[in-house]
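Notebook, p. 212. Picked up where the previous page left off. The plan for this session was modest: take the two constructs that came back from the sequencing core last week, fold each one, and keep the raw output in the notebook itself so nobody has to go hunting through shared drives later. Recording the first one now, exactly as returned: residue sequence, then the structure token string.
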Amino acid sequence: QFALPIEIEAGETCRESSGLALSWRNGYLSEAERAKAVELSATLRAMAKQYREALATLAEIEVRAMDSLRAAGWQPDYLTIRRRDDLGVPSGRSDSLVALGAAKLGNTRLIDNVEF
């Protein structure tokens, strides 16, 4: 496995009152896309809740989230849950975790994360 000696320094994601993560990419969104863009963070929060409450396996949660965004007109690249400290696959539900995602809405690729 490719493993570099790096340290991840987490910072809080700044958000608009709607929940949309602040990003220069938001400038590429149409007004309608901007209103729809909050679906990415909502999907990540739903994934975190499902995982924390053991409502499904990690694979099931990821597939459902991808399907949900596709059905809403998105083109998701990835939606996953990983350990915060090294972005490895979680070994348990008590780990410090993060839900991560990247998806295109129209021509704009948005990224977001939700720690839990």
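Okay, moving on. Second construct, recorded in the same format:
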Amino acid sequence: MKTWTPAQITCRIFRRSLLPYGLPSLKLYQVQIPPKGTCVHWYFSADAQCTNNEEATVPLAFGKLPGVGPTDINGNATFSFPFDFPIGVSSGVINCTATDADGNTSEFSSCFSVSAATPTPTPTPTPTPTPTPAVQFSAATYSTAESIGSLPITVTRTGSASGAFTVDYATSDGAGLNQCSQVTGQASARCDYETTLGTLRFAAGDTSKQILVPIIDDSYAEGTENFTITLSNPTGITLGSPSTATISITDNETTTGANPIDQAGVFVRIHYIDFLSREPDPSGLAFWTNEITSCGSDQACIQLKRINVSAAYFLSIEFQQTGYLVERLYKAAYGDANGPSTFGGPHQISVPVVRLNEFLKDTQEIGQGVVVNVGNWQQQLENNKQAFALEFVQRSRFTSAYLTSMTPTDFVNQLFLNAGVTPSTTDRNAAIAEFGSATNTSDAAARGRALRDVAENATLNSQEFNRAFVLMQYIGYLRRNPNDPQDTDYTGYDFWLTKLNQFNGNFVSAEMVKAFINSVEYRQRFGP
């Protein structure tokens, strides 16, 4: 092996002509450089990466020197540097100058040709797929202390946030008919949390929303209890994961204590979440609590105040415009249901058609964000009513009962017939006029307005009042339908409606509210 000092060769390449070829590759050529009288063979190779008329400098060494390329035993060296030629270049000239370590130079040149080669295609990058928009809970599990009040559950959107969508949500549990005092590890919607149902509506740009689930702080020592919340029926989006979450309530009792429903503040809060489906506003909580505590230790006064405070929630503007409106909307849409009663002998009676979970879901929908006397509550309530009525008349149950081929007159007549109301000409014509000059009832918005006209009719409001008041004794206080266990039929409902009617709606004289808030079934929701 011969060893030589490093040398440097600088080459410039000049193109000669243009031809319509693809990306070129430069063939190898041999040139001879005679440093110090010795002939050394150089082999040049170039790939198509540098522009034409560009200079490239390559350091070389003869022999094995660190960091430089060696020659072989015969003094031959091969090196390469990149040159890029435009499409169509077919030939050119390489002009090179070799400089050794002593500064001696030698110039040489060589012609070259560019061979037309099929260009190596630039691979098309695999696009990163855009995530499919999805909606899901922010976590698969949530944990809360029993005394928290309401637990916020976050629902998030992933993927593009450009579109609007809706998704339903609902709580559920496996407690069934268990007594609230039973320790099973299963939370109960009657005893441990409030059933929470509804529809989330995401506008374009919305990425998250919260669901508030009221938690009940009972006095039973029961350990940690679990229930679930589930997303379903997405429109305009797909369900992501998790679409079901487990909620754990951590108990704050080590031994079962006194029943907290006897405390004025607890009693008032429970009425807010049972009747209005929301936590109390501070001023309302303070006002109604004071109504009871102002009695001091006078038990007769306390008892009467508790009755009046309790009834005030059914009579409130907020409930009359939300929960009671829901009962009347179902009445106008579907009429009555029938059920058996043994009060005064076996017979069938007409009863409200709306059921517990329908009532709770729809009441929560209309009441969303409404707190009477707070902010622009009237407009919020009206917006909610309009949106709900429009959604209600597009449900399959309603569209099956009322074909769009019906005339406006037939549509309105059927609603008033279901409501059990003979309308005035003015009221009837006003409802029909919601459709304008249309000859059918395909306009969903007009259907919603006409349904509201009937449901909010003053005669229906008066006729249905006592029936709804009795219904709410079961739904509000006992969190069940009138014919659910521990009842087996509508005998209890029939009894209390008859008694309330006998006293012309005077709930104090009828002792109806008193009976329900003092009942074992109600009180055992919260403690012994």
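Notes on construct two before I forget. The mean pLDDT is 86.
Flagging for discussion at group meeting.
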